[in-house]
Amino acid sequence: MYISVSDRNGGQGGTEQARTAVPFRFAPTIVWLGIVSLFTDVSSESVAAVLPLYLTGYLGLSVIAFGVLDGINQGAGSLVRIAAGWYSDRAGRPKYVALAGYGLSATARLALLFAGGFWSLTGTITADRIGKGIRTAPRDALITVNAQPEHLARHFGVHRMLDTVGAALGPLLAAAILLLIPSGYSTVFVVSLAFAVIGVAALALFVPDLPALKLRTASGSRKAGPAPIIRWRTLHRSGLGRLLITAGLFGLLTVGDGFIYLALQDRNAFELQWFPMLYVGTNAVFLALAIPLGRLADRWGRTKVFVAGHLALLACYLLAALPFTGAGAVAGCLVLLGIFYAATDGVLTALASQLVSPERLATGIGAAQTVVAVNRMVASAGFGVLWFAVGPTAALILVGCLLALAVLASPLLLGRAKAAKVHA
Amino acid sequence: MILRARPTGDKGRWAVLLLVAAMALAGAGFFAFQAVQRFQESQAAASESDVSAGGSPLPAEPFVLFRNTASGQAYGQAATVSLSDPAGARAVSGVDCDRTYGTRSAVICLRTQRGLVTRFEASLYDRNWQQQRSWALRGIPSRARIDSTGNSVATTVFVTGHSYAGAGFSTETSITPLGAGSESGSLEEFALLVNGEKVMANDRNIWGVTFVPGQPDAFYATAASSGRIWLVKGSVSERTLTAVHDGAECPSISPDGTRVAYKKNAAGPLDPHWNIAVLDLASGRETVLRETASVDDQVEWLDNATLLYGLPRSDEAGDSDIWQIGVDPAANPVLFIEHAWSPSVVR
User: Fold this and answer.
1) Residue B25: is it exposed, middle or buried by C-beta count within 10 angstroms (0-12/13-18/19+)?
2) With A114 labelled, which of A328, B97, B235, B236 sits at a CA distance of 20 to 30 A?
3) How many Å apart are CA A286 and CA A345, to the nearest integer?
């Protein structure tokens, strides 16, 4: 059932009818990867939900210093993605690189039970972030290789849907435990560890590594070859460079949900205590739409859906900036943000993976995700300054105008990427 | 279905996965079960400290209000002891507080509300423990003060990043006037002045307000930006914070208004060690006290020559003691109230 790596672009040459004629089938490996992500996200998000309270109790006022350090770690975690993707391509063993990442995060969960001081807590949480950085690109490479090329974005949708179910369940599980035991942080950590272990076991047992690459290594064609690196010329020719520039530009104009909720809250659109529920609402829309929008991307065009997702984000900025108050504006923003994530998260990875050659698959995916993640961090920092300087409404409208320009410019920026796709 | 092509049997894989899952979940479930039992037992157990019945009004004679951290019943509740006998029986209030502060006629209580989502709130009580008003807080309770006239409440909370917005902790400090028709103001919106220059940086953090006795408009607090920390003097009416001293955190002004006690970091910014220091406002002379433990608390003045502060107990998570120390640099710390946190002295 495995579509070999070299066949991956096979569908591209066919006519439109030939493409849609292939019926969608769930790929067991992708479903298993989704289940692995579900368990891992229950594990990581249950801890993430209680971590601020736990750390504040332990660290007191030094949590501010912790937050600064953690921001740096998150940047480092994004850069690890490219490195892990590159290593995964070089070794040809994405499963085992991903397993190392999931394993490191599970070990960090165990260490959290024994960590007490500032440095041990920082080290533990850094290890978790690095683990997340390591696993993402090789895992998405495995999804690409196991997906039907005609339904690539939909397969990513399946994975992201399962992943988001875990992200939604984790905080609820943690809340349930703390309702029973108000200071039961160690119980949350132990339950989280159990879910992490199940995720790692499911990956180790049910997700096969790449048979195609193994075959090729055996045939000697790339045994002694130089490590595949993405060079500018390759980027230029394949169109990945154009995708990275476009996605990077969009990333710079993505200000983060937190700011949008704050802007709504600033206008008294909802009561303060509902703040955490907004994340739950956005997640719910994301998981409901991940598969339908992936399917739409496969039919209508992945680039179009990716760009349209940013139109949803733009609409959300305007809704948050304009003087509508009340539940309608809040619900509208949640739905638009959910659409934005469902239309861009898996779809970007699908776009990146179809623009790189098989030996550079994980590197290309890692590069696209890193560019977006790093630029979003820059955007958050910059938007914080802008918010303080001109106020939330003006700041959102300004970023919204820039995003509108970016959306208008995106066909020009992506022109070659689309062409490359057709000729591939 | 398609998995059948595997060299080793799927049955074996399923058996291993189910075994791992069963063991992991059974282990976690057993741990959780024991934790619930321990919690329920400690809830039902008699208090570790000598506790008198709850619900009585605030005492008429001078007293100390604090958070009771003695395990057993009434853990986490606001409680009082007589100022003349701080080691004596504590009267518990039946009101849960993470941080509390009191005057003769009012008590402010900051607390964490567990639920589907965790919420934080501030509640104001009269001297009969009847709730007067309550409002939502943006984050995890840290510090609380009421001014001596009972006109304003100051709260400091930790605001945390959410999973999508990225991490990062900051403080939010608000002064909430208790009169009708007025709304609270975040001190981040006040102008921060250092050497006459207005600090515009976006990473400004304000925490730990102390109200100047007898001056309803004036207060001291801590301000930080770009790695620097200042003791600032604030004015509510002018909406300004003016830096008056370096490196002072969580100030607390003496009852006579002549000195400010605070914590001062003697180590690096990442892993701080806080000493207690006292600043004489007239002379500008700073005295560092002889407490060797790191003190992460907003100290309280027992009288014009003695400070109170909380230290967590190393043997029991969630438990702490209140200590006292004289402002003389040769004075040694003495245990003041066992199993207690967040003291305020009410005369």
Assistant:
1) middle
2) B97
3) 10
CATH of region A232-423, choose from 1.10.760.10, 3.40.50.300, 3.40.50.2020, 1.20.1250.20: 1.20.1250.20
B110 touches chain A (CB under 8 A): no
Q: Tell me which residues of chain A, numbers 112 to 171, contact chain B at a CB-CB cutoff of 8 Å.
A: 117-119, 167
Judgement on whether residues B114 and B8 belong to the same structural domain of the protein: no
Q: Is A258 in Cβ contact with B162 (below 8 Å)? A: yes
Residues of A in contact with B296 (CB under 8 A): 60-62
Nearest-neighbour CA in chain A from B238: distance (Å): 20
User: What are the domain boundaries of chain A?
Assistant: 26-217, 232-423
Helix (H) or strand (E) holding B291: none
Residue B240, domain extent: 46-346
Give every CB contact of residue B195 below 8 A, 6+ residues apart in sequence: B243
Whether residue B140 contacts residue A52, with contact meaning beta carbons closer than 8 Å, is answered with: yes
Among B113, B86, B171, CA closest to B346? B86
DSSP code, position B138: S
Of 1.10.10.410, 1.20.1250.20, 3.10.310.30, 3.40.930.10, the CATH number of A26-217 is 1.20.1250.20
Q: At what angle do helices A118-146 and A94-112 cross, to 10 degrees?
A: 150
Quick check: A182 and B27 CB within 8 A? no
Q: Going residue by residue through chain B (347 aa), what tens digit of pLDDT does each one get? A: 444 445 557 889 999 999 999 999 999 999 999 999 999 998 889 888 888 876 689 999 999 999 999 999 899 999 999 999 999 999 999 999 999 999 999 999 999 988 877 889 999 999 999 999 999 888 889 999 999 888 899 999 988 754 333 446 788 899 998 876 566 688 988 999 999 999 887 778 899 999 999 998 899 999 998 889 999 999 999 999 999 999 999 999 999 999 999 999 998 877 789 999 999 999 999 999 999 999 999 999 999 999 999 999 988 878 999 999 999 999 999 999 999 999 999 98
Is residue B142 domain-shared with residue B27, that is, in the same domain? no
CATH code (residue B159): 2.120.10.30
The total domain count for chain B is: 2
